[in-house]
Write a structure and sequence with these properties.
The chain has ten helices and seven strands. Helix content is 46%, strand content 17%. Helix 1 (4-17) crosses helix 3 (36-48).
Length: 272
């Protein structure tokens, strides 16, 4: 059972994360459904710990960079930036489009690294650090398609089919449509989103595992996205080939692969 005060603090942090320009106390309290005095106490605690800052002029509250610093420190300890960036840079060079890495964390996918390969004036470059909308992105579909169908549909059903206002008109809106998309994803071997994550864009994505083998856990996904005008269906085979090559490289480099292989090579009866 969640601790109520911790739950409210996390709701507050997530609200501030969605408002980079900051929010006044009254708006925060209203959004969280709590008295202003209670919201102020939470803000005071988070401010004292360095997670929240108040603009001295506007009096608006916003997140500090402390959370971002913790996140990047965690990724750095996992050696993810070093591992991923070279693969992403090569994928961007091959595709000449915007490429991203998303990592699986429990029941979430989060974009954590990117590379821009587009050299033309029309460049697609969405924000980073967001949780992936699973049912309406190529990345989400590629990941969901690695799960048993019932598990994938239950995961999305529990969250609902709401999408951010900027999403495109063809975003999946119900379980029947999602089931069809996942079947197509399994059949073709990659996730596809056309006019879903953003109007006028297309994205393709593949999942990669922590090591070779169908029983290895899915570590994350790699995706390529760009304007519809540059990515017609005729371009998909080339993009998918580049994605699969990059996914194979990620699996070769992934830290868990080394741990897994070390366990296989350890003599029987030893530990450590």
């Amino acid at each position: 059972m969640p601790v109520a005060s911790l739950d409210r603090a996390l709701d507050l942090i997530e609200s501030l994360a969605a408002a980079p320009e900051g929010m006044p106390l009254s708006d925060l309290a209203r959004r969280l459904g709590m008295p202003k005095s209670a919201a102020h106490r939470l803000l005071a605690t988070l401010s004292a710990r360095g997670y929240v800052a108040q603009d001295p002029v506007t009096q608006m509250y916003g997140l500090s960079l402390r959370l971002a610093g913790l996140a990047f420190a965690m990724l750095d300890r996992r050696r993810l930036p070093d591992l991923a960036q070279g693969v992403l840079d090569e994928l961007a060079r091959r595709t000449r489009e915007y490429c991203r890495l998303a990592l699986a964390e429990g029941s979430e996918l989060i974009w954590v690294a990117r590379a821009q390969g587009a050299t033309q004036a029309l460049r697609y470059e969405p924000e980073m650090g967001q949780t992936v909308v699973l049912h309406a992105t190529a990345t989400g579909k590629a990941w969901l398609a690695t799960m048993p169908e019932a598990d994938a549909l239950a995961l999305v059903a529990a969250r609902g089919f709401a999408v951010p206002p900027h999403f495109g008109p063809r975003a999946v809106r119900d379980l029947a449509a999602l089931s069809e998309h996942l079947e197509a994803t399994r059949r073709q071997g990659y996730g596809l989103a056309v006019d879903e994550g953003e109007p006028g864009t297309v994205a393709l994505a593949v999942a990669f595992r922590a090591w070779d083998g169908p029983d290895a856990p899915v570590a994350g996904t790699l995706s390529v996205a760009g304007p519809l005008s540059r990515l017609p269906p005729a371009a998909y085979p080339t993009l998918v080939a580049a994605l699969r090559l990059a996914a194979g490289r990620m699996a070769e480099l992934w830290p868990l692969r080394r741990r897994h292989m070390a366990g296989l090579e350890r003599p029987a009866g030893t530990s450590g």
